[in-house]
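Colleagues,

For the teaching module next term, I've prepared a clean inverse folding example: a structure given as tokens, and then the sequence designed for it. I'd like students to try predicting residues themselves before seeing the answer, so please don't circulate the second half yet.
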């Protein structure tokens, strides 16, 4: 077994042991296998997400996504496909991203959105990113929701808290750990 695979197995089993102690350890190998399969599929989907675009359109059967919604997604699996999914289905959306992600990957994400909007004739101003570390982020998000836009949040905890004093943080019990946030 490759060193990375051993690390992944240990990390998953450790998380299961700490966060979901009610799961019997005898079930860990099957959970690790399912997780690995999902991550491999996710990597394949994300590396060639343009190929998947035709499959992302939803036939709404008269239902509308056009009301303000807060979309919450796990930060695992094919999570990068969620914003293109919302864009293709014409749901105006701002995604909240961590400052480190904003600094490292924002230009790539913005470029992908620009191409997708241009190819489909979609108003680019209806889609974007909000840096969670921006002191005006909450105000911008509230205004966006009031205007009918939707928000996409990736649930990975501790987002946007770098450098903040504990007096400005909120703690939330999550499974068997405490997650902090603004």
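(Answer key — instructors only)
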């Amino acid at each position: 077994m490759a060193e990375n695979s051993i690390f992944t197995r240990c990390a998953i089993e450790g998380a299961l042991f700490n966060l979901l102690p009610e799961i019997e350890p005898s079930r860990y190998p099957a959970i690790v296998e399912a997780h690995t399969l999902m991550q491999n599929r996710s990597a394949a989907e994300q590396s060639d997400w343009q190929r998947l675009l035709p499959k992302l359109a939803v036939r709404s059967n008269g239902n509308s996504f056009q009301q303000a919604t807060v979309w919450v997604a796990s930060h695992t699996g094919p999570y990068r496909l969620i914003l293109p999914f919302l864009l293709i289905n014409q749901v105006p959306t701002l995604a909240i991203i961590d400052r480190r992600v904003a600094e490292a990957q924002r230009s790539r994400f913005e470029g992908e959105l620009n191409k997708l909007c241009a190819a489909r004739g979609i108003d680019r101003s209806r889609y974007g990113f909000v840096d969670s570390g921006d002191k005006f982020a909450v105000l911008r998000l509230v205004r966006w929701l009031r205007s009918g836009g939707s928000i996409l949040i990736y649930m990975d905890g501790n987002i946007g808290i770098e450098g903040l004093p504990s007096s400005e943080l909120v703690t939330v019990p999550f499974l068997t750990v405490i997650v902090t946030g603004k």
